[in-house]
Amino acid sequence: MELFDSRIDSRPRWASFENxxxxxxxxxxxxxGAKGSPSRYVESGEEVTLLDAHGGGVVRKIWMxxxxxxxxxxxxxxxxxxxxxxxKEPAVDCPIGEFFGHGTGRVAAxxxxxxxxxxxxxxxxxxxxxxxxxxxxxxxxxTCRRVLLFYDVEYTLEELRPGALYFHAERRxxxxxxxxxxxxxxxxxxxxxxxxxxxxxVITDRESYGDTWFGExxxxxxxxxxxDTPTLVGxxxxxxxxxxxxxxxxxxxxxxxxxxxxxxxAFYRWHTVDPICFHDGIKVTLxxxxxxxxxxxxxxxxxxxxxxxxxxxxxxxxxxxxxxxVGDGDPDDSVLFFRxxxxxxxxxxxxxxx
Length: 354
Prior knowledge:
The protein is mainly β. The chain has 5 helices and 27 strands. The two termini are about 30 Å apart.
């Protein structure tokens, strides 16, 4: 849609507490128009409807602000759910912090093509979400305390061309990842669609692994029925988000890291300019693999830390199910090894079931 295209067939609507239905001429009527309903408390155990739209259209933007945004556990518990065209099961059911790009629930300032938090106090999502007949979005508070919520859902009502795919998001967490097993980013999914990207959160086990590097794991995409061996393979976790030789904080349109301190990392990667399309299914995994010196790994092995050596000084030595000694070479040689950290993610994708 060009900026100068008036799109006469597109009708803008905003759903908020000031106009919950989004209906024409129904906005801002409480308190005689003097900001009577900008927000409300959502009680413990309550689920409120943010959007209940009927007809064809596209959700264009979602914004939220909450009084408990500094509470990590609240941001990993309060959830958003989305239903398209009367579906009984949600296409999205995610903790709000993680859905909006804050991978560990710690809200930090960032800006990107699909999500943002301008000053680390708000939640914005710009992913277009089409629907042919109806759209429903809810906010659920499973915590023991109420939360003050501000929000708006901006959408257009319009007739969609055939072929528009439904938006989905899959949230996963493994705490910790099983030793030597890949972390599943997106479970095996049949049908056709387009993978949009991922928001990740990693909290390392510093008691076991100290300050050794966590991010040597390769991302792997299994496409179009090839679920035993991948088609697309990265070279390392920080490499996948466009960084290299470690990972600090940065924010770009399609890749970034919002948190990188004290063994905690939150990062994202959007495939907006380098599309990953699938025609007969997809599965996505990430290896939980780290790096340390020969000296550090030898010490961890003596302490009984869970790890499996995969290469020493650049030479592959991985033997599944066997313990491999790192040897007596240069103590500063690099050693790669599988490890067990806390991984979480939200995978975003468009999808049509077969």
